[in-house]
Structure prediction request, 729 residues.
Amino acid sequence: MIKQLRSWWKDTEISNLIGRKKVDFSIFRDGTHIPVEFHPDFLEANQGQQPNLGEGIKVKLFYEDRDYEATLFKIDQASASREALQLRYNGNQTLKELLIEVFKHSYSYIMQERTNQLADDAKRPQVVVPEDQAEYIDFFATGVPFEYRLEFITYQPKPNVWWVNQGTTIQAEKEAGILWAPLLNTQGRKLYHWETMKEVKQGDIILHYSNKAIRYVSQVTDAAVEAPKPGSMANTGWQEEGSLVRTNYVELIPFIALQQFNQQIMQLNITQGPLHTGGGVNQGYLFRFSRQGLQVLQSLTTEVNWPNFTILEQDEVASSMESLREVIPILPPSDSSITAFLHQIQSHIRRQGFFFPEHLIENFYLSLKAKPFVILAGISGTGKTRLVKLFAEALGATRDNEQYTLIPVRPDWSDPADLLGYKDLSGRFQPGPMTKVFVEARQPENRHKPYFICLDEMNLARVEHYFSDLLSVLETQEWRDSEIQTQELISRALLGTPEDREIYGGLGIPENVFLIGTVNMDETTHPFSKKVLDRASTLEFNYINLQQYPQGAEQDAGDPADLNELNHLFLRSDYLQLVDAYDTHQELVVRTTERLVQINTLLEDIHAHVGFRVRDAVCFYMIYNERYGLMVEEEAFDWQLLQKILPRIQGSHSSVRRVLLNLMKVAIGSSAGITVNVRELMDDDASPLYLRWAAGQNPPGVKHPQSARKLAYMLRRLEEDGFTSYWLS
Prediction:
């Protein structure tokens, strides 16, 4: 059995192995943190003995014919409400020197990367030694408590494998037998995917991706040197100075389409690799690949004429494939399974005696998937807060395990300190309720679990005031090592002690946390600005059927236990920018964008038109819906029109009336037999139009029925009250 968590690994078939630790910077500095999942292994090796909390026990580490002293500490991580083990040897200079000497490849790589980070502004992730260059320490039990035998696995140089994205320049680069990338962008900054050129060495293998397929493979003949931009690239906007690699291109016949291999390569979790978790290709130039990835690619494409220099040795092939079978990383559920999982969630909700309108659960899921911030709006008592709780419970997130947190918003909240925390008079940071959840969610043992935060009565205070920091940081999401990370939430000025910096330093919004706000719109609450609406999907709970009664258990289907196997990737976004999805869903993106362009033309009259942020969110929603087969395209767009466009409309001017009528015409379509003459209705009574939706009626054949019903209500409020808004109920 294989157990793996981040930099630790164990095969239970290896006798006396406590665990295998991947060499990282902490190994050369002071020791290593031991994940909770490996505490039982050390406890067994120590024959049931362990240090007392806050204390340490001396440890002997045996390597070859020498022993080295270290200390096993048990510390209290108050922020995570748990104890932690650390193996420290920061005072043992002899052991440190040994590790630097034995693992000189990792040490050199890490220190060079850290120097680069200090020397320039290249936005690079935390230094991680690539998997195909990684080195390891094996800890073995000796039969004596607190005495461990060490074995070292060191790097044996082999050609690295790289992936290069080439667009219009591929033919010019192929004919010249080169790769070329600028040193700096137009703002004078270094970019990670250009800096990788400096690591390419003679003999390395490069996969050349262009126009949705791998079309060439090449072997490097000369490592990178600084060179001016080739004449064949004179028409590009890049700067003149760059890095040039010489390589021999071989055409792959047939070429290898992305869809042939992306799902299998994603399972390898290649560090800083070319694919994001949505299965598309990351934007950039030169990315790391791996020898194992090359073997998987070749096993999937036996019909391709792979050249001899790409063929691995048989023992390496066997090792790669065995590793692929045994080490199962955390993966998202398959697209085809999503419908069944959502049906099980609905069954769980029905078993609790609650019912929601058709497709609301699917809509709620797609909205969270597109953006981890959703607003549930509507009249009091319609089940908004209950929906969040039941949805979370279905996925195993409860108050008891602290994966579901309800935060009642107070009317006197005026700044982010109420949610995030503050520095007290003693200089210690006092975390707010949301910060506590973030700290817990980012613990290594929790990173695959979904965490839900429900901000109840969210608009009792002004959201733009107390939620401003989170709204801003939410927009800094970016891919780092196949994870979504954000900028820091807690100002360093608030972290005045080493303990606070260790717990809260670098804390952003974890990718496994999902924010849901519930709102009522009445005289006690505040409206939302476009800044908030742009960053959230708004689901409305105003149309209620009181004649829904509890159903018997025989109505339920499916095995709810399956839901407990889901990880946070069930909900986490696969795309952050449109470029992440455009390569594989171009036609749907273009269709959706053309719809939004038409609607934007109407909204411009009242300065309510949308920008790229809303466009991307709507496109992501539509893509997920198509991938999972949840709704027909028109129905999915109806929900997006209702949730992302209509909340922006309010006012009393005649231009608002014109926009409502034009949108009504779009929403009704041409198959309902309803004529909307905007010019006539601008001056005439519009009640014959909007009263078609009175008393819960819904005319048949309407293209976007949800949006049409809401528009009819808004038009009626404008005509009868002289003012209208999406939020009036």
